[in-house]
Structure to design on (451 residues):
């Protein structure tokens, strides 16, 4: 990487190689939101929004499958996994904001600027696999919600999800702020639905508190570990790292060091608050499953949970609220998945295609396995596919997390905006935990096949 001579190169901002050319991610939204010159709350409001788009990934239909399975089978034990995963996510999303704001590149562009073409193409392919896996969860979750609310058959519901591209296109025409407002509204509806159901469920607060403390059984029990890694994959989603590093650049903050420092601070506040809010919703799914179903026959299918929720809680509207929240979750995740797909394709390949075409391609790739399983195996098969999609996400995580930490810890790339050493050490610890858990999962899976 060619850098001009400087007596203190550690303080230089990141300069991409001379051969690297790029246009901003999401060019129609890049630096489109102005920042007020003064006022803490006015500035915080202006920077608020990207965190909630990222938080959508922490309450998508994939979370529902893993949390329902974990809560109904193991009670509150896996609540600790949700809490730990969320704090991992807060740290990694902070690194994404730093990278995007300080370097002016998103994670995909930084990979293209730094790695050889074969490595770059491999990382792109893995990320696309993760996006398709996530989209599979969105397709199935939305189809199940349509079935529960409107009695539409599961295969037909899967096919209906192909038209949601038009919702996204309409929202994008109004501007990025309208997109953020829609997302926040949907999150609010999801939260309201779960508040009502949790009040009715009356969870055991003592057992809930104990569940926040990690148990060694999570690692020693293969079935529990499988669901725990699924929760991790559903929480710390790889394509969210690419998404956040790009959408923080929708704010027209000052590009000097002071302006970047301020933008990093406000963006971190935004993402931390949004992810803590997502933690409450994500945990609420597992808590509801534990309070309503643990101790009886395991309830892993979303449809079965819908059928049993109202009779179990004695509240007639409980099942309907559950399905409404699921539908909002699927639509929210569709929007952020679309944006992430566009960012990844533009960043890794420097290839720009129309957003509607990108959406049709991604949704088409997701509909094929979802439709096949829905037609062939029904709800039981789609639930298994939901959980598998989250494990695929978790297995892809190291290939996004490791480059992110390498870039953000590089003084030449980040200059004065490089995080302190203790924070970088924590990030590497997070990466190590993710990698070790994935190796353990692969070992147990292969061992099970051989046995």
């Amino acid at each position: 990487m060619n850098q001009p001579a400087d007596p203190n190169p550690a303080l230089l901002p990141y300069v991409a190689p001379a051969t690297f050319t790029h246009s901003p991610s999401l060019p129609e939204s890049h630096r489109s939101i102005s920042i007020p010159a003064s006022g803490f709350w006015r500035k915080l409001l202006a920077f608020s929004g990207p965190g909630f788009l990222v938080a959508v990934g922490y309450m998508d239909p994939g979370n529902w499958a893993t949390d329902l399975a974990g809560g109904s089978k193991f009670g509150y034990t896996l609540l600790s996994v949700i809490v730990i995963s969320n704090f991992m996510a807060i740290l990694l999303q902070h690194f994404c904001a730093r990278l995007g704001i300080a370097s002016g590149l998103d994670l995909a562009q930084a990979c293209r600027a730094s790695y050889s073409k074969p490595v770059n193409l491999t990382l792109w392919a893995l990320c696309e696999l993760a996006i398709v896996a996530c989209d599979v969860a969105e397709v199935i979750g939305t189809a199940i919600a349509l079935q529960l609310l409107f009695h539409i058959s599961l295969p037909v519901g899967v096919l209906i999800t192909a038209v949601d591209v038009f919702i996204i296109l309409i929202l994008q025409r109004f501007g990025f702020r309208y997109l953020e407002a829609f997302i926040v509204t949907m999150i609010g509806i999801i939260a309201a639905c779960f508040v009502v159901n949790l009040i009715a469920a009356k969870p055991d607060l003592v057992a809930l508190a104990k569940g926040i403390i990690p148990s060694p059984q999570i690692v020693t029990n293969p079935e529990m570990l499988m669901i725990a890694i699924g929760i991790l994959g559903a929480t710390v989603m790889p394509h969210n790292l690419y998404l956040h590093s790009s959408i923080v650049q929708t704010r027209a903050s000052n590009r000097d060091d002071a302006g970047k420092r301020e933008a990093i601070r406000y963006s971190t506040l935004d993402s931390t608050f949004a992810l803590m809010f997502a933690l409450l919703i994500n945990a609420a799914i597992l808590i509801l499953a534990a309070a309503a179903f643990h101790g009886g026959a395991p309830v892993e299918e979303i449809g079965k949970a819908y059928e049993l929720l109202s009779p179990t809680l004695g509240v007639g509207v409980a099942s309907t609220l559950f399905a409404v929240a699921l539908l909002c979750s699927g639509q929210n995740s569709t929007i952020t998945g679309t944006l992430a797909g566009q960012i990844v394709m533009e960043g890794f390949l420097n290839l720009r295609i129309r957003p509607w075409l990108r959406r049709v391609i991604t949704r088409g790739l997701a509909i094929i396995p979802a439709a096949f399983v829905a037609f062939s195996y029904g709800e039981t098969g789609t639930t298994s596919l939901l959980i598998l999609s989250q494990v695929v996400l978790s297995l892809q995580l190291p290939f996004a997390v490791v480059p992110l930490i390498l870039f953000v810890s590089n003084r030449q790339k980040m200059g004065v905006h490089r995080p302190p050493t203790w924070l970088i050490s924590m990030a590497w610890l997070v990466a190590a935990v993710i990698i070790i858990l994935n190796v353990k999962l692969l070992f147990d899976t292969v061992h099970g096949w051989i046995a």
Notes: Confidence is low (pLDDT under 50) at residues 1-14.
